[in-house]
Every structure is written in structure tokens, then in C-alpha cells.
Amino acid sequence: MVFSSLLFFFLYLPLFLVLYFVLPKRAKNYVLLAFSLVFYAWGEPVYVFLMLGMTLSDYILGRFMNRFDQNPSKRKMCLILSIVIDLSCLAFFKYAGFLVGTINAIPGVSVSFRKIALPIGISFFTFQTMSYTIDLYRREVSVEKNYAEYLMYVSMFPQLIAGPIVRYQNVKESLHERTVKANDITDGAMRFVYGLLKKVLLANRLGTLWDDAKLLSDPSTAMAWLGAVAFTLQLYLDFSAYSDMAIGLGRMLGFRFNENFNYPLTADSVTDFWRRWHISLSTWFRDYVYIPLGGNRCKVSRQIFNLAVVWFLTGLWHGASWNYVLWGVYYGVLLCLEKFVYGKKLEKAPKFLRHLYLCLIVVVGFTVFAIEDFSKMASYLASMFTVRGGLANRELLFYLQNYGWVLAVSIIVSLPVFPALKRKLENAGSRTRAVLSAGYAVLVAAAFLAAVSYMVADTYNPFLYFRF
Amino acid sequence: MNEKIKTILVAVLAVITLALSAATIIAPKKTYSEQENRYLEDPPVLSAEEILNGSFMKDSESYVSDHFILRDIFMTVRAGYERLTGRNRVNNVYLGEDGYYIEEYNGLQNAARIVSAVTRLTERCESANIRAVLVPTSVSVYADKLPATAKGTDQETDRQALMKSVSERIENLKPSDGGKNFSWVDVAEAFEGAKKEQLFYKLDHHWTTYGAYVAYREIITSFGFAPLERSLFTERTVSTAFKGTFSSKVNDLLAKPDNVTVFESDRLSLTVTYPDRNLTTDTLYAQEYLTKKDKYSYFLNNQNTFVEIHNANAQSDRVLAVVKDSYANCLVPFLAEHFETIYVFDPRFYRGKISDFINENGVTDVLFLYNMYTIDSDAGINKIQ
Predict the structure, then answer these.
(1) Is residue A463 part of a domain?
(2) What percent of chain B has pLDDT over 90?
(3) Which residues of A touch B251 (CB under 8 A)?
(4) How far apart are CA A221 and CA A227, in angstroms?
(5) Do residue B153 and residue B266 come from a single domain?
(6) Three-state DSSP class for A416?
(7) Residues 6 or more apart from A302 whose CB is under 8 A from it?
(8) CA closest to B88 among chain A residues
(9) Judgement on whether residues A169 and A264 belong to the same structural domain of the protein
């Protein structure tokens, strides 16, 4: 179930919220758990048992780790077992086909293999459940004794299939005890609606532009860039919309999830971009891979090795295909360059140039990310960097005419324009503020109706993260 | 945002959402959508198998979407919003000038199949005169009404190329039986001269009766008859509320509907037989469709495998076979003035060999008529022999 589908928004969600708020406190967690499991089973009626199994194994290993509190070697065994089980499941269900495919690409080798369907969200929930046993081993959290609550933490439907990756330590208290104030409901609901509007009115529209652009036989240079920019904006708006909806829903239920995006397209270096893009993933890799490897407190060659490992894995995390690996390595190389070669010079460059530098890198990066087939990718990149299809043509005019508004609004939303306006208005009179608030409310309501009409009439509502 | 206003806004949105949910659940369900011209999804079946293979979930989603309350109105809102944000193409239909909706043309996918079909039919027909027409559609005839930024392929180039390759193939047929009497009838020039008046519906993919009349003049001349002047017909508007297939694609309830006009003649004395329907009548029109959405089906009673038409007052006793798509349906009344007998074939449904029928039933003339869209997409083309 996609959050922006009619079934979810008009039936599943209202039914859930009504039951959740009507039933007494001790029943709430069970309502949330039951709805989360049905939510997952809706997309994966079979793999829901895989998720149950993985969480059960980590839950039990956590209990053992707690029991062997005074026995470091047994604690370590529990941790290793937990990591091995989690990563084996991930490797088998997500990467086995890819591995076999890669091996078979070697001439003379042929391994037969039945294709396995990828369980939705497996990379998200594997990382969540792993973070628990690792933190437990590091004694950063205490043990969870209630399996239902542990399962609820991993499977919670607001963040189950598209993040953010929530760590056990961030929600531990709230799993057992949480309060919801009136403004949690209104702010949470507004945040959800904001995400919904972003997804339906902007990201989905941009998606049709990108789908057209990548099929053009010989796009002009400007058209190829327009397509790549559209995909970049689509991915940002779609992905951050899911995080908005997750954070908003979580807030309505009394959870505070960490922010996952912080206007990444305003970054002025690759380092800065990755502090702002998919924050829950980059901090996960930082805390559980990069720092344990030694991070940056070692000699330069080892640092480069650490970065290479992290960025190879980051790329691979996004999908079992070489283009994602290439995309990860691309960022690894750029980060090394910034760190060891031209970072200092970059800082001295004018803000405008730094920003342009970053935008070019991001757009080219997402082009690699978007096209799995290497020959098609090469052809698309060639269209961007040569003039073989001409510089611009009538096709470009058509797409600018049809998508100009969506592109313009998308760019405004991708920049911190609203927060800036809000700060400016803080000093305005209360009357002005009330009028502006009312105007804004009318705008949101109108956009909401437009979004509903798109949800009803549009068949285009993709889920972009099925490869993650 | 002001806290009070925020609370009001959230409450309003929640009420709207719950009201739409409740109304969707309670409202009686339709099985057919007139607006979209299709059957709506049946209620999902609940069974272990359907759940495990995911089809229950998929069906539920389409069921909710198909039966969502006020679906038609929301589709109109969406169309309005699209237009507001500069969209000039919705579901491959351009929103052209003067209210013309014009379907995008993206080239021929099945040119080879078309060439062999026409050649095959010509080869198999022993003695009949064969006239073939490829009707250009509004994307070419009314290209000047397309939005300035419209893209797409040039249909006229494709059409000329297609006619040329067929002609070449037919010229190369062995003249064992004295050669074939085949020729194309090109209506494009006549359309160009007549296009000030509406040749195509604005909201449907068909030509208007006037469009068919203009083509009729060219076609009948090539069969050796003098075309009847327009003044010899009584033009009558039978519907002012036709919203055709393009309107369903754009889904804008506010678009101004088309008129359906018929060119009536008092010279016909008809016996029309529809074997599919077990029906014999004296008219080429089916009144009941005027109250339905698809008003073009008024002409020749919608789709039929085979129709047999006799006109006791015809100008000649020649026998015509028409192999065609739906464009011919409003053209046939004009042809009936000249031919005593007309057999109409829809190759999509006709099971036998059309050429055998033609050779065995004294058919003197054959008209092959398709428009540039259907001829490429119609699977019946392959079955013609």
C-alpha cells in the first residue's frame, strides 16, 4: 500500500486512526502492531513471515545478550550471530540474483538460479533491527523484553517501507509510554498532508516527464538535462515526502522520528549534501561501519579505504545492480577529492559556484542512479554532454510548456523558501499573520482537493524504493 | 501558521476525508462507466489463493479507485488543474484551438502488416475493382489547430509512404489474370479545401458526416459515378450532446459537446440485415444510441461482423464489398445511393475469407477504408484474406 493510494488514505488510515484513538491505552500498541503487519502483508503476503523471523531472532539474541551480561565472549557470539543472520537474509533475498548474474557474465560460467522476488523494505527493516543488537552490545540501550513491542518498533507502518531508518534507542521510551498533545495531532497531520501534496502534485507529475525523457530516441542536450533535473527533483520530493508522511504520522501517534532530509539541494559541497540527504542512512553507515573501521582517526590511506568500503556499501544498499554501486563509488571518489585534494579551495570559491558544482554532481549522479542498463545510461549521458541531438528543439518547448509550472513549484519547495518566509513574518503584526495564515490554509485546502482528484483520476503513482 | 487556523484546517481536511470515505462505502456501485466507456472493477474475491498471490490486494485497489465517490467530478477537477498548470496534452490528446481535442500521432508500428494485408486482398480478388482509402485524421488535417509546442510524427509523410509501398507491391504482382484493377483514392486534398467546416468531431476520433460526405465525392467518382450534390440531402442534427472517446481521455465534463448530423435522403428504399443481431430493418441508423454516450454508434448500429444492405432504388445494380473500420459507418449511407447491394465486413470479427465471399457472390467493386490510427492498431488487418 502506497501512502498516496486511495485505499490507504481513505480507508486504511481513517480506520486505523479511529481505532487507535478510541481504544484504551493498553490496546494502542496492539492496534498499531496489527495494522502494521497487515500493511506489510498487503504488499508481501508471504515475506511478512521473513520479517517476523528476523525480528524474532534479534529479539531472542538480545535477551541472551542480556542474560550473558558478565560473559563478554558469549555476548560477542550473540552479536555476531545476529549480524550474520540479518545480513544473510538480506544477501539472499536481495543480492543472490545479482551475484549469480554477475558471475554468469564471466565468459564460460553459467550458474542456474531461480529468481527471487525482493521483499519490499527489506533494507530498511534489516538496518533497523541490526541497529538494536549492535547498540545493545555497545551497552547504549537496555534490553527489550516484550517481543510484541520489539516487533512493533521494526514493523511500524509509518516508516516501514521507505524510511526513515529509526533506531531503537530513539524510540525506546515512546514504545512503552508516550503522550500525544493537541499540537502533536495538528502538526503531525499537517506534516503528513504536506508530504502527500509533495508526492501527488509534484513528484508524480515530474515522474511522467522523466519517463518520457528517458524514452526519447535522440534528445537534444537541453532536453536531456531537463529530464535529469526532473528525475532529481522527483526523487528528492518523493523520498522526502515519504519521510514527511512517516514523521507526521509518527508524531500523531506520539513518536518523534529524526529528520531525514534537510534541503539537500541547497548543499554547497558533496560532504554537505550527504549531511542533508537521507540522513538516517548516512548516519547509520557512519556509526556502524565507518567509525568502527577507524573513521578518519587514522592515516590517509586507511581513511580512503574506509571511505571506499562505506560508499561501495551505500551504493549497493540502494539496489542490487551495478549502476547503484557506480553511483556510490562516484560519491566516494568525490568525497575523497573534497577531503584530500580541493576541499580547501572549494571553500574559498563564491557560494554561487559551490552550489552550481554540487547541483551538477547531484544531477549527473542521479542519472547514473536512474538507469540500470549501462548502454542506455551511457547513451543518455552522451546526450547530456554532447550536442548530437542538437542543443534544443521543439520537444523541449513542449515539455517546458507542459511542465513549467510543476518544475517551478518543485524548485521552490526544494529550497527553504517557506521557512525563510516564516522567519520574516515572525515580526509582523498578529493581524497580518492571521490573514496570511488563513490564506495559506485556503491554499492548502485547494491543493488537497487537487491532490485527491489526482489520486482518483491518475493511474501514475509509482513506488520508487522497491529496489532498496 | 496560526495555531487556531491550523486546527481548523486540519479539522476541515479530516471531515472532507471522512465524508469521502463514508460516501464511497455507502454509495450504490455502478458496473459501467458511461464517461469512461468501460466496465468498472468487480468487488474483490477473498480467498487464500488470491491473497497469497497478491491479486486480492491489487483488485481491491482498483475497486476502490473505480468506485470512488464523485469519480467523474474529480476527473474534471484534475483536467482543470492540468490545464491551469499549462498542460496542453492529456493522455496523448492535445487540447487544440477552437475546442478541438486531437490525438497525438507517433508513427506506424505495423506498416509491413498493412502492406501485406492490402496486397493479399487484392491478389485474391479475381475480378472486382478495388479502391482503397487511408483517411488522414485530425492530427494531420487540423495540424494548424494543434498547440504551437506540440510534438509528434508527421502523419502525412507516413500515409504517402504507405500508399506508395502498397502500390509498388501490387504492381509487382504477376499479371497472370490480366492485372488488377486497384487504385488509391486520396481524400487529403479534398479535405484541405473543405476543412473550414468541421470534418472531424472535436471530442471524438471519428470524422463527421460532413467529413464522410467530402470523402464520398472522391470515392464515388473513382468508382465511375457522379457524386450527388450536397443540396440533394436534408441535413438534420440528431444530437447536440456527443462527447466521444477523446473527451473520455481528457475527462473534462465541462468541454462543449459535438453535434451529430445526418445527411438524409428520400431516394433510398432499404433492406438492411444484421445477421449478428438477427435483425432486418429499413434504416442505416440505430436510434437507441442517441441516448447513450457513444452516439457515433448511431451509424450502422455500432459494431457488426457483417451487414448486408439492399437499395431497391439504387443507381446501378453493381455490388460493393466494404472492408473497413468504423469510419465507414457514416459513409455507407452515401454509397447506398449508387450500389444495389453492399456487403460490409469488419475483419476483426469476420471468420471466413473475405476474398472467397467476394469471388463467389458477384461482387463487382471493393472499397477498403481505414483511418490512419485504426489501420495500425487494428488486429483485424492481419486476418484479411
Answers:
(1) no
(2) 66
(3) 457
(4) 10
(5) yes
(6) coil
(7) A294
(8) A402
(9) no
Quick one: A140 and A218 in the same domain?
Answer: no
- ipTM of predicted complex: 0.87
Judged by CB atoms closer than 8 Å, whether chains meet at B64 and A7 is answered as yes
The neighbouring-strand residues paired with B322 are B344, B367
Same domain, B80 and B122: no
With CB atoms and an 8 Å threshold, state whether A186 touches B21: no
Residue A462 inside a domain? The answer is: no
User: pLDDT, tens digit, for every residue of A431-444?
Assistant: 888 888 899 999 99
Instruction: Dump pLDDT digits (tens) for A6-35.
Output: 999 999 999 999 999 999 988 999 999 999
* CA A272 centroid distance within chain: 17
Choose the final residue of a domain: A150, A178, A206: A178
Residue pair B99/B255 in contact by the 8 Å Cβ criterion: yes
Domain around A326? 184-457
The contacts of residue B8 (CB under 8 Å, 6+ apart) are: A441
Chains A, B: CB contacts under 8 A, how many?
A: 119
Q: CA-to-CA distance for A451 and A457, rounded, in angstroms?
A: 10
- In this prediction, residues A144-150 reach a mean pLDDT of 92
Tally of domains within chain A: 2
Whole domain around residue B267: which residue ranges?
109-383
Helices (H), A349-429: 351-370, 374-385, 394-414, 417-425
B88 with B123, same domain?
no
Residue A465 lies in a domain: no
Report the alpha-carbon distance of residue B320 to residue B220 in Å, rounded. Answer: 11
Mean pLDDT of A252-267: 94
pLDDT of B32-49, one tens digit each? Answer: 877 777 788 888 888 888
Q: Evaluate whether residue B73 is within a structural domain.
A: yes
Grid cell of A354 as nine digits: 559551490
Please report which confidence band the pLDDT of residue A424 belongs to, taking 50, 70 and 90 as the band edges.
confident
Is B104 part of any domain?
A: no
Q: Which three cell numbers stand for residue B43?
A: 468487488
- B32 and A CB contact within 8 Å: no
A269: Cα within 13 Å, side-chain hemisphere: 17
- Shortest CB distance from B6 goes to which of A7, A45, A190? A190
**Using CA atoms, how far apart are residues A11 and A18, in angstroms rounded to an integer?**
11
- Residue B121 backbone phi and psi in degrees, to 5: -60, -45
Q: What is the pTM of this model?
A: 0.84
Interface membership of B361 toward A (CB under 8 Å):
no
Output the CA torsion sign for A261, A263, A269, A270.
positive
Between the alpha carbon of residue B251 and those of residues B33, B80, B90, B373, the distances in Å are 12, 9, 9, 21
For residues A291 and A386, membership in a common domain is answered with: yes
Residues contacting A292, CB < 8 A, separation 6+: none
Cα–Cα distances (Å) from A181 to A188, A251, B12, B39, B249, in that order, read: 11, 10, 19, 47, 46
User: Is the backbone of residue A124 left (phi > 0), alpha (psi -120 to 50) or beta?
Assistant: alpha
DSSP letter string, B199-256: -B-SSSSSBPHHHHHHHHHHHHHHTT-PPPPGGGSEEEEEEEEE--HHHHHHT-TTSP
Q: Smallest Cβ distance to A395: which of B5, B75, B151? A: B151
The predicted model gives B117-137 an average pLDDT of: 92
